Amino acid sequence: MAVDISLIKKLSCFQGLTKDKLDAISQISNSVCYLPGHILFEQGQKGKTLYFLIDGDVEVLFKSAYTDPRRVDMISGAELVGCSAMVPPYTYKATEQCLTEVEVLEIELEALRNLIEKYPQIGLKMQEHVIKILYDRILHFRHQI
Amino acid sequence: MAVDISLIKKLSCFQGLTKDKLDAISQISNSVCYLPGHILFEQGQKGKTLYFLIDGDVEVLFKSAYTDPRRVDMISGAELVGCSAMVPPYTYKATEQCLTEVEVLEIELEALRNLIEKYPQIGLKMQEHVIKILYDRILHFRHQI
């Protein structure tokens, strides 16, 4: 485990963090590639991993009590995936599946929580980024209403 | 300005914070009542204030490039209002208007940012709460698709 700090530096959610914090994040990150069809995680599962999509497309599948899983969103390019597992009850809110070959950075959430306890600035920065992503999704829905 | 700490303690987004932090929040909070029809803030405006809706109903009005403002959501009971202004670019993403008489706690965002710099745990806790609220809104939309 561990990736080069230059990979971490590029991600928008870490912009503005000091080198020691970027270095600490790189130490708990792992670079992985997946084939199309691979399921990153399933709706309702306890979240163990946070993903930073570096390259490729991921579809977001959502199942309600009355419907089968269906696509409600798609994520492309550099973005956070699985961020619902960062906050209580620490579960994934949808199933996310690779549509293409994808390259991700994986971070174990337990290691991340320990890091945030040591450096709260990392948590503030990441959660601020998650809030921005979620507002973008909400705006997307509002435009459709 | 300043409200009783017992009011702050009740709000779910501050659950688990220590007394010194709750006290610091109460010092920068102000209790205000508004009449039906009062506009708390307008879409696109720079955010100066964060609101904790204590009692009453607020409607969320959204205007796209192609439509007039129309209701896309309603907020009732104890909830955060105006949280988009907590993160860059620090603007409100919708217009929010009182539907009934409402009671709110108001916090100046600049004072809140200074407080979070001193006590990052307050920021982490509040952001975590905002993320949960936004996921609830997204799930609401997903159920409608």
Cross-sheet strand order for the largest sheet of chain A: 1-8-3-6
Name the assembly state. Answer: homodimer
As for the CATH topology of chain A, it is Jelly Rolls
Total of helices of chain A: 4
Average pLDDT across residues of chain A? Answer: 93
H/E element order of chain A: HHEEEEEEEEHH
CATH H-tier superfamily of chain A? Jelly Rolls
* Main sheet: strands, sense, barrel of chain A: 4 strands, antiparallel
* CATH class membership of chain A: Mainly Beta
Question: What structural category characterises the helix and strand content of chain A?
Answer: alpha+beta
How would you summarize the topology of this molecule?
The structure is a homodimer.
Chain A lengths: L4 H6 L8 H9 L1 E6 L4 E3 L7 E7 L1 E6 L7 E7 L2 E3 L13 E4 L3 E7 H10 L1 H25 L1
Antiparallel strand pairs in A: 1-8, 2-7, 3-6, 3-8, 4-5, 4-7
Helix pairs in contact in A: 3-4
